[in-house]
Specification:
The protein is an all-alpha fold. It has helices at about 10-20, 25-35, 45-75. The protein folds into two domains: about 1-35; about 40-75.
Amino acid sequence: MSHQVRLNDDLYERIKANKQEGESFSDAIERLINDRSLRDLQDIFDDEQVDEMRDAIETADEEDVAEVREIGERFE
């Protein structure tokens, strides 16, 4: 049996973008919700660990931006 559901346009586009070739929307949704979410980890890490991870991600992002700028300057 099938059902109709309403999805916000942005959610529909996210599912569509993550849908694999030959996969139905039902298959894609099932695969996506069966994968672990970062929310599943919320009770595993304490606040200090979360802060450390955020800092590491922020540092990596800053380094990536600096590297992209440096490469861009080479081509100016």
